[in-house]
Amino acid sequence: MIEVVLNDRLGKKVRVKCNKDDTIGDLKKLVATQTGTRADKIRIQKWYNVYKDHITLQDYEIHDGMGLELYYN
Questions:
Q1: Percentage of the chain exceeding pLDDT 90
Q2: CATH value at residue 16
Q3: What predicted TM-score, i.e. pTM, was given to this entire model?
Q4: Fewest CB within 10 angstroms: 11, 15, 18, 52, which?
């Protein structure tokens, strides 16, 4: 179990607990339940790398306590 911190740069910082073998799509669903936005309207990225929904957190080498950027489409 790892904890990922997502910051939308508008004042909202979300902490989500998930597994390493969860996909980015699963992470979006967890973030959507905490923020109240729809999962299909969320984009997760780090710098200029936009993360794809079907790839796992472990494949992207996302570790415990890592910070990601949260954007709304």
A1: 85
A2: 3.10.20.90
A3: 0.89
A4: 11
